[in-house]
Design brief:
The protein is an alpha+beta fold. It is about 45% helix and about 15% strand. The chain folds into 3 domains: about 5-25 and about 240-300, no CATH class; about 35-100 and about 115-235, no CATH class; about 305-470, no CATH class. The protein is built from 19 helices and 13 strands. Strands 6-7-10-11-12-13 form a 6-stranded antiparallel sheet. Strand 12 and strand 13 form a beta hairpin.
Length: about 475
């Protein structure tokens, strides 16, 4: 893209009403942003441990702890006397000192000086324990959760049950697939929901009115807790609750944003920074005053194929009243997506001593396919370690289908036989294909898509009904 063309595209982007509203939001004062800790993982995990400890200075007592346990572990764990430990070193159980406002654990590079082999949070009562490994932008280290599981088994054995929670911004099904003993939870869902409920109980008013009702000595605390809640609620989009708007702009201006990204990288490689007093090309002068938002949009760029697959998934979601839960941990930059009906998230498959969340064993998969020129939507059982659980699940589904006369499961007989007899294989139980075409260089679904989407949702309803019958049965 030529320099003049890039400048004109950026000017048009800056003139978009959504761009201007986002830019204004990002210029609002935010103490977490000023301190550059809004996505600093260590600060979030120490704050979480602080909130979970009823004896700490947040004034919530065990209100947050109770609601967090209800959100993540169900009603089986009663909040009583607990020990909450942060940054628990695996070797011997020694604790690091908690992070305080006067402590600085960053190295010269600005990366957290955390030592490896430390569990982020451990909540322990006389009868149970909950382990939490938390991530913001980083991914799981090699065999990290496996190491933590081994430590927890050595420490607790059969003495008390241990729930293991993998806390992320977006669901990360790849990690859960590889570590079926862990359950995935999200900062913006379970943690934020628990904090909002605890605050409403504590202050007895809407959050907008809470500050006015605070005692003078509690005002700073109340304001901090409210601001932290708002931060949690926007962690998944980094743009003040406007993830959809950010993504729509990034998709619509993919080509100029890609050209801008390439020019910024070339200038960085040439040690030619963009600064306001230097002689700069017109596109750079357009970038400078809005660089925070431009950088956010560049970070949300995805290929046109990924954007089209995401649009198909959104269209699927709006075609039914059944809420969906996304399972992808990469922010949707690949042209494939995994999801389940939200009701599935509470179901567990339990056979003998093996147990795993249903969504770790089976989910729907939307995939853009260029060679077939279609979008395939399939009910997939991926390759996982808990293959025996999947086999029992498939056998139960097929038995229920035969008993109730539904036709929503259509596995290939050959693939089904291999799956049931062997280990380490995957299985497609159902699929629907939506053909697409290019109109003026843009993707569009071909005629008949609405009928096929309707057929898909009919199948999902039947799958959910069959699974409900299985879950209602006593499991071995």
């Amino acid at each position: 893209m030529q320099e003049t063309d890039l400048h004109q595209h950026l000017l048009r982007l800056c003139a978009e009403p959504d761009f201007q509203q986002l830019d204004a939001r990002m210029r609002q004062f935010d103490p977490f942003k000023v301190l550059r800790v809004e996505r600093y993982e260590l600060r979030h995990t120490t704050t979480l441990a602080w909130l979970l400890d009823p004896e700490q200075t947040h004034g919530l007592g065990d209100g947050f702890l109770r609601r967090f346990l209800e959100q993540t572990c169900g009603a089986g764990l009663a909040a009583g006397p607990v020990a909450v430990q942060a940054e628990l070193r695996l070797g011997g159980g020694a604790l690091h000192a908690p992070v305080t406002a006067g402590a600085d654990e960053e190295g010269d590079s600005g990366t957290a000086a955390r030592k490896t082999g430390e569990l982020d949070v451990l909540i322990e009562s006389a009868g149970w324990a909950v382990a939490i490994e938390a991530k913001i932008d980083s991914r799981e280290g090699q065999d990290q959760l496996l190491d933590y599981s081994r430590y927890l088994e050595r420490r607790f054995g059969d003495a008390k049950p241990v729930r293991r929670l993998y806390l992320t911004v977006q669901p990360d099904q790849d990690v859960i697939d590889a570590n079926p003993g862990w359950s995935g939870i999200q900062w913006g869902a379970q943690v934020a929901t628990a904090l909002r409920a605890a605050l409403e109980q504590r202050y007895g008013a809407s959050l907008d009115q809470a500050l006015d009702g605070c005692a003078p000595g509690e005002r700073a605390l109340c304001e901090f807790l409210q601001r932290y809640l708002h931060l949690l609620e926007r962690l998944d989009d980094t743009a003040f609750g406007a993830a959809g708007t950010v993504q729509a702009l990034a998709d619509a201006y993919f080509a100029p944003l890609a050209a801008l990204r390439d020019r910024l990288r070339r200038r960085e490689d040439a040690n030619a920074p963009i600064l306001p007093w230097l002689d700069l090309p017109d596109w750079a002068r357009c970038y400078w005053p809005h660089r925070q938002l431009f950088d956010l949009l560049i970070g949300r760029m995805r290929s046109p194929e990924a954007g089209f697959a995401a649009a198909v998934l959104e269209r699927l979601g709006t075609a039914s009243d059944m809420p969906l839960q996304r399972l992808d941990g990469d922010g949707g930059k690949r042209a494939t997506f995994r999801f389940v009906p939200a009701a599935w998230m509470d179901w567990q498959v339990d056979v003998d001593d093996n147990r795993a969340p249903l969504h770790a064993l089976m989910f729907y998969h939307v995939a853009y396919r260029n060679s077939y020129q279609d979008i395939e939507i399939k009910l997939l059982l991926p390759k996982v370690a808990e293959h025996a659980l999947q086999v029992r699940l498939v056998e139960g589904l097929l038995a229920q289908q035969q008993a109730h006369g539904t036709r929503s499961l259509k596995p290939s007989p050959t693939h089904l036989g291999v799956f049931l007899e062997a280990t380490g294989s995957s299985l497609k139980l159902y699929s629907e294909k939506l053909a697409w075409q290019l109109d003026d260089g843009s993707h569009a679904l071909s005629a008949g898509a609405d009928d096929k989407i309707g057929a898909f949702w009919k199948a999902v309803t039947e799958h959910t009904a069959l699974l409900g019958k299985i879950m209602a049965q006593p499991q071995a």
